[in-house]
Input
Amino acid sequence: MLVGFCARVREGDLVTLESTPLAAPILRELYRKVLEAGGQPLPRVSLEGLSENLLKHGNDEQLAWVNPARSDDIETVDVRIALEAPGNTRRLSNVDPARHARHERSSEELRNRYLERAAAGELRWVLSAYPTEAAAQDASMSLVEYEDFVYGAGFLDDPDPVARWQQFGERVDRLAAFLSTKRELRVVAEGTDLRFVTEGRTWIPSKGQENFPDGEVFTGPVETSVEGEIRFTYPGVFHAREVDDVRLRFEAGEVVEATASRGQEFLREMIAMDEGARRVGEFAFGLNEGVAIFTRNTLFDEKIGGTMHLALGTAYPETGGLNRSALHWDLICDLRSGSEVLADGELIYSDGQFLNGVG
Amino acid sequence: MSDPRYDRLAELVLDHSLRLQPGEVLRIEADAVAEPLVVPLHREAIKRGAHAYAALDLSGLTELLVAHGAEEQIGFVSPIALREMDAIDASITIWSETNTRSFSRADTDRRQRQLAAQRQLALRRRDRIARGEHRWCGTLCPTEAHAQDAEMSLEDYEAFVFGACHVLDDDPVAHWTGVGEQMQARADELAAVRELRIVGEDTDLTVVVRGRTWRPAYGRKNVPDGEVYTSPVESGINGTIRFGFPAVFGGREVDDARLRLEEGRVVAAEAAGGEDYLRSLLELDDGASGVGEIAFGLNYEIDRFTRNILFDEKIGGTMHLALGMGFEDLGGLNRSALHLDLICDLRREGEVYADGELVWRNGHFLQDPQPARPAERVR
Output
């Protein structure tokens, strides 16, 4: 699925394969498939302990250093396949957030360049996950249960996953086309009444190419148009920390109030990271009915069918979003009960479902 | 919890071998199985202000390339990797493997072509080292695979490796600095020698070394280390030599090799095991049947054969001779894609004569090195 359906590896492609040694079995399989497709696999294996070393012991200059070899990757390769395979998702929980943020800022230029090449169609990429004990633990499952969850979310239990994803993709395409006809959205739920303009921006159907599993439709709202308040039903997970019951109030597109029942200080530090961190870079609807529960992993959580998410920080250039930041923090809100979304005053979505057969 | 022995090995490599400076870019190259050493190396390098990162391989990937890759995939040299080589000030190769025999059944031609492509990277690094733009060191992290080759448990093998590296000494850097001074004196002394004669079991070989530079190896480019070596005069090797230890090359062994050399060329070769393989290596190219190196192994903490050349060639009391590629910077002229180290045990029954004078018996030089007088060095 990853090499063929998602990344569409072709002859002569340079393909980086990124993960940790825990994903060795699937990395070998990917390596072989890339060879079979005529591509050149370039393994990029990382150890979690090395980020820990840098964040704990590095000086400012070291934290800000960008490895020229990795910039070269971003500039040169045709395809990037990255797999999450954590050994300990909370390894960096005790790192000073300011140091973390400094390190994050150093790779901002690189990330923007990466998104630019991706938006221009020069770089295909896919982010996926290999089930590990650490991820299962975060999801409060056994490894076997978590494996079933991961493969189920990718429709890999279906006799013909490709056909299933194509069919699913048609639905996501329809929703993107429908939303493109709207000027302004309003989300109403408990503790939430948020308005923003999406006219002139592009809704992108995300249907199993750049994320796997997938299932969302997203855009970058007009930066200055975001008004109102929102209360996120799920904890925000970022930099190995969890922030509970996040509430944000926006005025003219900027966060003017941010509270949380736990981790409020961290939330505020992240929002203060740079200019763009207090503005919205992405708004999206999660559409994958195979992902029904929260597992503390954004790759899956933001796809939960019947949810929305909003990202503070950098926008995806292909949406037309202009916001740039070292931050991109997805915060997720469950809309499956007692919620409504209105488009230009008309009710289009209620209790986690699009109405009138559009979705 | 990190094992302090790994931390100390990391410190030795960074402070003695590489003399790593703040702001320098360091690349650590290893198989992921070397994680117990990669992590402390990276941590200590970060603490020293360097920009350190690891480039990790996973066991089984290159094996897939050799088994299934098309010609152009096998011969591919990453342009990213070539550019990367120009941007780094220092690098460490950790030779640890997950399985030392994973290429045993691979197609030899395909494997050779894949290695030849990767050699372009090694050559670029060699050129940068020669220009003083790059510092490099090779070392090993104990793994089950290497312990198995050494016929030991991992615990015993760790003790062997760390002992050979002298990392449990009070001051490992001081130890290796001292070794360096002693070996430099020995190298200076050998520089005055015209011809060596090596006599042992089934061995009587004369080797002309006049005019060649001897180099002490004391933990700068290898950890562990401990040899004094040169490239002998190419046409000046005559006689017979028997190598009691198996030679391991490309995952295959040549056992109990016996060679007869005339004017520096192998004219007869036999082996108790792997004789065909030995012959195929000798035919690899023109330089493969010539001699590229002669050396004394002087690390007496290494007292046994472990099927790993990093250690075996330094066994205290042995000599080794390498067929193939010589060292240009020591005056060596032989060129080959081969560099096959063959180890001759001189510990029980061995004598070495320097210009007719007995200088070595049963694994030891008879006298501490006497620095040569300036007049002799000039001559």
Remarks:
- Chain B touches chain A through 35 residues (CB under 8 Å).
- The longest strand of chain B covers residues 25-31.
- Chain B has two domains: 4-168, 174-378.
